[in-house]
Amino acid sequence: MPRGIHELLGLANKFVKELAKPFVAREEEARVIALAIISGEHVVMIGEPGTAKSALARRAAELINARFFKYLLTRFTEPDELFGPLDITALKQGKYVRITRNKLPEAEIAFIDEIFNANSAILNMFLTIMNERILYDGYNEIKVPLWSMIAASNNVPDEPELQALYDRFLYRHFVKPVSEDKWAELIEAAWKIEAGYYEAAEPLLNMDDIRRLNKLLFEVDLNPIKEKLIKLYAIFEDQGIHITDRRKGKALKAIAASALLDQRMVAKEEDLFVLKHVAPRDNEEMEQANAILLDEIKATEKHLRELAEIESNAKEAKEYIAKVTDFDPRLVDYLRSFEAVRERVRKIAEETSDDVVRQRALDVLSEINEVIELVRRKFML
């Protein structure tokens, strides 16, 4: 029996949290992958190796029980490695057929590492697969089930022949290494994974659910943000951030997907923050776009509401923890929860241009630190 809309939206929201769960400080990466999957688009993650890009892609596929394909490209990669070898028996009979079992043409979610190493033969096949979901191979047109391609690269491509491929990625996310204040958590998480304690993903959704969510995109009311969106496009252009006509239109899918992930059928100004994954070409433009969005979008009220709720939860938690005399398993949940919330509040404090929001965030941060310290003292009893 198909899930109801409210249940579906709740699971989509949970998908982001479950995707980020085993990783340290990768909440934004989890959200952008979720945006790509819900909107049926592709995402390229640009940054140094070892920042959990492939692990996030694999976990995303596990959470939706999707057929997954992963490959690292080099300059010498042959089409057969990705699309399957030719069937020699069929070739002797004058038929041009590939054996695609467990290869890219059968995947629903694909992770391609170092994507911009693609040679001209692979490049042309990628373009049609990503855009039309068709593999043109010899005399054949093969319809493929690819839903989203998640790609990775160390750098933004400069070569003219790669620009069409780069433009096929609606989402471009620039991955940063984990910040120094999270290194302790990072090494703890890494050690657990090395020891075999990696938390396997249990399917949360399936591809039918994803297709339904994708259809719901077009039922999201975008009217409240259209005027602001056009203004932002003008500001971006004025500041030297050029967005192609195709990307201007497709950005609406990203905005609608953001609303769905927050369990809404009406877009709000805060959903326009997804433009920082759509508009910029490189890391410099991303920083510039983020600054523009922070200045132009009225996130103050949203942040203050969010901070007030977090502060209320922190005070409630302190009261409960103070009464605990024996070990309570809920203390572990409190610690994990408030450590994650602390990172969110710290990010608000760092990124906001509003002095009131920044000071409020710092006050709430102090409250959260008290909760965490209180829990740790209880562990020592």
What does it look like?
By secondary structure, the chain is of the alpha/beta class. The protein has three domains: 5-194, Rossmann fold (3-Layer(aba) Sandwich), CATH 3.40.50; 221-296, no CATH class; 300-379. Helix content is 56%, strand content 8%. It contains 16 helices and seven strands. The strands form two sheets. Strands 2-3-6-1-7 form a five-stranded parallel sheet. The longest helix is centred in the C-terminal third of the chain and has 25 residues, at 355-379. The chain starts with a helix and ends with a helix. The mean pLDDT is 90.
Salient structural properties:
16 helices; single chain; 381 residues; alpha/beta; Rossmann fold; two-stranded antiparallel sheet
User: Can you list the strand order of the major beta sheet?
Assistant: 2-3-6-1-7
Query: What's the main sheet like?
Result: 5 strands, parallel
Radius of gyration: 23 Å
N-to-C span: 50 Å
Q: What would CATH call the homologous superfamily of the largest domain? A: P-loop containing nucleotide triphosphate hydrolases
Number of helices: 16
Order of H and E elements:
HHEHEHHEHEEEHEHHHHHHHHH
Short overview:
By secondary structure, the chain is α/β, with parallel strands linked by helices. It is built from 16 helices and 7 strands. A 5-stranded parallel sheet has the order 2-3-6-1-7. Strands 4-5 form a two-stranded antiparallel sheet.
